[in-house]
Fold Phosphatidate cytidylyltransferase.
Amino acid sequence: MQQELKLRIISGVILAIVVLAVTWYGGLAFRLLSAVIALLIYYEWSTITRLQTEQPVANVAGWVGQAAIAAAILLGRFDFALSLLVFFVAIAVGFVAAQSASRWFPAGIVYAGLTGIALAEIRGGDAAGLQAMLFVFAVVWATDILAYFVGRAVGGPKLAPRISPGKTQSGALGGAVSAVIAGSVIAYFFIPEADWLMAAAVAFILSVCSQAGDLFESFIKRRFGVKDSSHLIPGHGGVMDRVDGLIFACFAAFLLATLFSLIKGDGMAPLGAALFGF
């Protein structure tokens, strides 16, 4: 157990350093990271849901779609990436309608493809994008860490015992409160133009979505009887195991920023600026 804990800590620290460095650098480096994460998520999804072994033709179509979306992300063509996502989801739905694939096929394309698009679009290429990405990371990490420790310390009723028996309502509340605090701290030090009430509200919403993402992945793994999404990360399992909360938080941030831009009627503003009201 000590050796496994050491491996987990070392790989976790290395991952955090690499991700933060690439986030700071932005540009092509972060778009590449986003595309790679999306591709690895699809690999794990197709393995967990048995698309790879039981529905090989559909799975090849899925890989073609993910590769096309990844290429559009690398080129910075997020509008085209979204169009490709819609196109390949339609193809996947066609497979399902023809009864040659399961419903997990189109769900996997959305889950992986939208993750890469949302990550890259949130970071963008400007200072507001860096601020937004650091904000999302802080909220998700604060949620994960404090939900665990508060849940262990306080205990109490389970949050979703059939899906994830270890998670408690007290942990969920502690994670949400800590996320609001962490988001407010990031807003104070790194986003002086931000509307504080907006930042706190966004932090709370992202925290709830992060916890929903964690529960969703637990549901998928329980549904297919697997413990880890893969063994790609030493001591940590798979990519999905590490970014399950981040995925749903990024989905929420992407949708919120799009909604705020539409409400203002100024076209699609940079996501970082749209999220915080400046």
